[in-house]
Predict the structure of PH domain-containing protein.
Amino acid sequence: MKLLPFLRPLLEAAAAIALMAVGLRIITNFFTRNSRVYRPTFLRQLALLFWPLLCLGVGMPFLVSFFYVSTLSAFELVLLSAIASIVLGFSLPAFLLHSQYYARNLHTTLVFDPKQNVLEVYEGRVRIPFGKKDLTRVERVTCQSNRLFWSRYTYLKLYLQTGEVLTLTSLLTNLEPVTEFLRNTPLEKKQRWFCWA
């Protein structure tokens, strides 16, 4: 049971992070009303990256063994390579999508209130002026599988009459209500295995 001393601290750390995230979510929900302004926040990023981080955290002790590759037998090296490919295969695509979405929507602010018929997009502090009538088409891209770590990474592209394309990613918020709000516009729904925006 050599694995138990490594696994226990990782599980304790994951449980502590999960408790802190849930506690912060409860506290912030208690003191604030439902927001209609969406930006890439720490809690939203943690919610999207929770499983990839947990997978990487559990697999990290095994990946450290690559530093001792000269002392490993052929069987141990094959087993270690298989574990590394599984860990990186599950977590690396999510990290790639997250970094791409973060770079794309770092300075984007979405103001969305369907009850007041408000949908506004700001790049930095500058509002991009458009209304529903200015949209030539809307493209909603989701992941084909719901079971992958990166399946929650989706995006929405708004094509304006001016030729400008606004990309809203799931790093801002859940995009299903926004898609429902735009249902009367020319809406194209697409599914991909990897939603690179």
Summary: Residues 37 and 111 are 5 Å apart (CA to CA). The chain is about 45% helix and 20% strand.
